[in-house]
Amino acid sequence: MQFFFEVLIAGLLSGVMYSLVALGYVLIYKASGVFNFAQGAMVFFAALTAVGLHDLGLSLWVAVPLTMAVMVVLGLVTERIVLRPLVAQPEITLFMATIGLSFFIEGLAQAIWGANVRGLDLGIDDVPLEWLLDHANMAISQFDLIAAAIAAAMVAALAIFFSKTKIGRALRAVADDHQAALSVGIPLHHVWGVVWAVAGFVALVSGLLWGARNGVQFSLTFLALKALPVLILGGFTSVPGAIVGGLIIGASEKLAEVFLGPYVGGGIDGWFPYVLALLFLLVRPEGLFGEKIIRRI
Amino acid sequence: MTAQTASNTVPAPAAAKAYLSVNNVEVIYDHVILVLKGVSLDVPEGKIVALLGANGAGKSTTLKAISTLLHGERGEITKGSVEFRGERVDRLTPNELVKRGMVQVMEGRHCFGHLTVEENLLTGAYTRDIPRGELKASLELVYHYFPRLKMRRSAQAGYTSGGEQQMTAIGRALMAKPAMILLDEPSMGLAPQIVEEIFEIVHDLNVREKVSFLLAEQNTMVALRYADLGYILENGRVVMEGEARELSANEDVKEFYLGLSTSGRKSFRDVKHYRRRKRWLA
Ligand SMILES: Nc1ncnc2c1ncn2[C@@H]1O[C@H](COP(=O)(O)OP(=O)(O)O)[C@@H](O)[C@H]1O
Ligand SMILES: [Mg+2]
């Protein structure tokens, strides 16, 4: 039982980090109806830029804010030169544009920083937290805990941003009805710019946390694919959905790997989330928290 | 020619200072579909002006041409100009126009369905950089005119009734502190009693808050009862204009738009034929 909880908690903690990645998608999808395929590339780009600057001799305290600025600019530029000219085009066109964008960003990152795997040390050791080991006899990684705490704080901050601030409200208004938002004087480009910048920020934090754990390398872009089952589970438009979806995927993936893995020969965590998402899709296509389309005349 | 028809039927409105003036505007959708064929109209300060006409006459297009919301629908003003408070506004963005005091309430209400009624209202103040207290005061003002919205303030707008959504949409526009509201078919799909309630509030806002209105309506009867002036649009042209009282007394208007005729209501086709002939004769 002790072991079960260890696995469960480790799963939930990595789930929080999935949530964070998924959140990047939700933000952009909610506000502009675009499934941003390039989110994974943005995570990669952000992590690589931060590490690259760090390796040049800058301290993390300088490198991270600098990367933050770079991500905001990248987001604003993307909105300006890729998405704005495509306004009012079919969703599939926008989706294709973000696929193109993702290859461009990946290429750009490697052209600037090279294709080597780089290590990132945030100064948090990946060792079991002693206090828990002593008091509850559970081995929970200190790194996982801190990473989860950071991710949770970001998610909470975003939730407050959405519900309490003027720009957050405008963002939800744009998500609901572009035309109406325009009619009350909300400038769409302004809102979309903010969304892309925030998505860039989320990409940076996810990139740092995942990069510190697994090394900053090209495989970070696959995080994009990991977020997919989270989104299917949680709904593409829901912040709480991304959180709960991430937790479910993280926990079930770890539990499946440990308890079912031995029977099917391991490697189950690679595909189990997709099966789960698929089953879920059949039962509840709009996701756990996906916004129901309100039809009322 | 059309202008002449208009002045023949009803004397031109007293030359009050034009607050909003639309001059010979032509609108084309998708580069080929000509919808407005030179529309001119004036809204004097502090008045309610009704823009009347059958479905498809071009009322909504006229309002969207004024509010510059046409761009989002691949429509374009190809001729003419729009002036608001002495300034040309047809090249502005909706954001700039709202800041100058003109807001459109779109046909079909267009509330933000997933936002609460109060959040809907708050988005209306987006263009105003005002302290919290003033925002609260604006909110209270809207609740004063629409007490129903106060009761429903925390309901999701998508789940409120049609009348409440219309009130939310008007209230939301009011939050921008507008000098002028372009109101598109407020009566659409609402019970007569609710329509009356909404028009009463529009009247109050006009009198007490000094908001001018340009009001597109198919419900000619109600609109002319509350409006000071009226324009009748047909096929993208103004075919008649004048004081609301005189328009509602006009025999043609009675017959075609109010359905009041001694010989009973005519079919749409008859009306069209008759109209055309009549216009040529005039
Ligand atoms: N976005 C659009 N693209 C092409 N044609 C349009 C568009 N919007 C309206 N129209 C056409 O313009 C004409 C006038 O429409 P509209 O202004 O909505 O009339 P009304 O509001 O008086 O019912 C109609 O024939 C309509 O089909
Ligand atoms: Mg219309």
Index terms:
heterodimer, A: 297 residues, mainly alpha, ABC transporter involved in vitamin B12 uptake, BtuC, 12 helices, 73% helix, 0% strand, B: 282 residues, alpha/beta, 6-stranded mixed sheet, 10 strands, 40% helix, globular, disordered N terminus, disordered C terminus, binds adenosine-5'-diphosphate, binds magnesium ion
Task: Describe the protein in words.
The complex is a heterodimer of chains A (about 300) and B (about 280). With about 300 residues, chain A is an all-alpha fold. Chain A has one domain: ABC transporter involved in vitamin B12 uptake, BtuC. Chain A has helices at about 1-30, 40-55, 60-85, 90-115, 130-135, 140-165, 165-175, 180-185, 190-215, 225-235, 240-265, 270-285. In chain A, helix 10 (about 225-235) runs parallel beside helix 12. The longest helix of chain A has about 30 residues, at about 1-30. The termini of chain A are far apart. The mean pLDDT of chain A is about 85. Chain B is of the alpha/beta class and about 280 residues long. Chain B is built from twelve helices and ten strands. Chain B has a six-stranded mixed sheet, with helices on both faces. In chain B, helix 4 (about 115-125) packs parallel to helix 7 (about 160-175). The longest helix of chain B is centred in the last third of the chain and has 17 residues, at about 190-210. Chains A and B meet through helix 7 and helix 8 of A and helix 3, strand 6, helix 4 and helix 7 of B. The structure holds adenosine-5'-diphosphate and magnesium ion (MG). Adenosine-5'-diphosphate binds near residues 30, 35, 57, 60 and 73 of chain B.
